[in-house]
Amino acid sequence: MRRRKMKRMLIISPEVYPEIKVGGLGKMVAGVAKALREKGFDLRVISPKENIYRPLWQKETELVYRQLGWRARDYCQKNNWQPDWLWLHDWGGVWSGSEFLAKSNWQPKVIWTIHSPVSDQDSYQYSYSYDYWWEDDEPIDWSDSFFDFSALVNQGISLANRVTTVSMGFARRLRRHYLFQSAREIIGIANAIDPEEWHPKADPLIGFRLKNSWLEFKQRNKQILQQQFGLPQEERPVFCFVSRIVPQKGIKLLAQAMKQFLASNRAQLVVVGSGPKSLLHLFRDLKTTFPRQVGLRLAADFDLPHQVFAGSDFLVLPSLTEPFGIVVAEAKKYGVIPIVHLVDGLKDQVKDGINGFGFYRFSEERMLAKLYQAQESWSSSWWAARLSSLSASVNSWRQAAADWLTILGEN
């Protein structure tokens, strides 16, 4: 019997976890790469040695991504290694891939995966930028203000044999988007987590590991969490927000709703994340107003969330748009019930009243209603039953790899 040829895949990525810790993209690349290697792929990853992220409209941005493509091409030439598949990630990946393919005779099939939201004039008048979205703020017009963003998207579509994104919900949004009308197909494959990193029974980053009782696990870790953040060690519901503190995450809505919510009860809020000073002050104001209810770690921290999730009862994530929302999956693994704005990948992960709480209309009134509903559920039989069922519902990268093998034609 003829032995099946091992498929070769080259991934060009702006980040790979844990070498460059930024967000879900790097975790996805690391997780899928590991799973596909286990499935028999000869897989190489080319990534930068430092964080190369900067706003897309800065002139150096295109250059650093093209340089990444040069590095990838040089690596393949020096090692006489030709990939069957070239996997590109997000907007800058189009520049990297174009450079890689420009001066080579190779003809690999190309996957282009989109991880970031786009300006959506028909929905929230929101763009993925460093500017605000709130009420009368104007969104950035990518093509008029900085460069022809629509041309970059079309270039990515023309390069790719497969256009994918990180959830079914976000794929539906992109299929409706005017920038993606020329795409023959956009495939949504849900992100997952690394079960070796997120393992409540063996996690070295939490103070008390899961033994036999989920209730004991949550209670003991809540005391540790409260002590770490200087909060009263009392049995009360703890809400958390763990993410980049940027407009995309619905920060102003979160701060306004939590101000009213915390004023009416003894719940606690723990915040971990970094962002611009113009948004950080919203959480500092909450801490000043509710010093015994709010704990802050306003910096990028990739270890602390393990203890935060182990000790918290509810995760709050009112994102305006969220391609996947990997913190929801990580939190669920530790028995944290999510409260989210039901959009994109969050809508895929959270079913209101079944495995969490969600609201469709982006408003303080709707968010407050879900916060109070969550509080009422705390310590109920429904809440207790969610702890283990949430943890068991989260997929690993090995499970997600089956979907990737299907679109690669290997299943």
The CATH architecture of the largest domain can be named as: 3-Layer(aba) Sandwich
The largest β sheet comes out as:
6 strands, parallel
Shape: globular
Classify the helix fraction into a percent range. Answer: 40-55%
What value does the Rg take, in angstroms? 22 Å
How many helices does DSSP assign? Answer: 15
CATH top level of the largest domain is Alpha Beta
Structural class determined from secondary elements: alpha/beta
Give the name of the CATH superfamily of the largest domain: Glycogen Phosphorylase B
Termini gap = 19 Å
Q: State mean pLDDT (0 to 100 scale).
A: 90
Total separate domains: 2
Count the strands?
A: 12
Strand order of the largest sheet: 2-1-3-4-5-6
Assembly annotation: single chain
The string of secondary-structure elements, in order, is EHEHEHEHHEHEHEHEHEHEHEHEHHH
Which percent band covers the strand fraction? 5-15%
Low-confidence stretches: 122-146
CATH topology of the largest domain: Rossmann fold
